[in-house]
Amino acid sequence: MTAAPKVLVFAGSSRQGSLNKQLARLVAKRIEALGGVATFVDLKDYPCPLFDEDIETQGIPENVLKLRKLLADHQALFIASPEYNGFITPLLKNTLDWLSRPYEDTPGLALYSGKWAALVSASPGGLGGIRAMPLAQQLLANLGLIVLPQPMSLSKAHTAFDETGAFIEETNSKKLDALCQRLVDILACTSEKILL
Ligand SMILES: Cc1cc2nc3c(=O)[nH]c(=O)nc-3n(C[C@H](O)[C@H](O)[C@H](O)COP(=O)(O)O)c2cc1C
Hints:
- 40% of the residues lie in helices and 14% in strands.
- Strands 1, 2, 3, 4, 5 and 6 form a six-stranded parallel beta sheet that branches.
- The protein is built from six helices and six strands.
- By secondary structure, the chain is of the alpha/beta class.
- Strand 4, helix 5 (133-143) and strand 5 form a beta-alpha-beta unit.
- Bound molecules: flavin mononucleotide.
């Protein structure tokens, strides 16, 4: 029997009340409901300094090491992120940069190699943060991840969730479920192939 695929889920915003954290939590629930294993991580719990090679030379920060362990233990990333001025957030870029670095016997980018990624974005605005999605896709591909096409962007996100954190509109539930299902299916296929 194949082990359930493990997905690391986090948001590119750390603020309290983040809509993207809300979306990431929902992603984690849906992945579990579809037979995957999801670990939701709040990056507020893992503050990392702005990347600087001088800091790196002094020693990789503890929280980066913790995130490295988490990444190594999962087959995929599922990222929910807002856009800032049509671009990915500094938090997302900084986190991905730290995790791209070599450490001990592990070469740079090795932690990402062969892993899958899926993306969603949320914004109170009308475009749902969609402008940063191609940029995030490009960055993840540069890092060596295989990125699912057609990310979901949630517009008017401040009115999208009920008090339990579920979507109010069924169309949003269907879109998110379809994306989560695609990721779980592809992970199941690829891990079966590896076992053959
Ligand atoms: C510096 C900055 C730039 C922003 N730029 C955009 C933008 O380009 N497009 C957009 O839809 N919202 C933009 N916003 C609004 C965010 O989408 C909004 O604050 C959102 O709630 C942030 O995500 P979060 O709720 O997960 O923290 C920006 C917010 C900040 C702080």
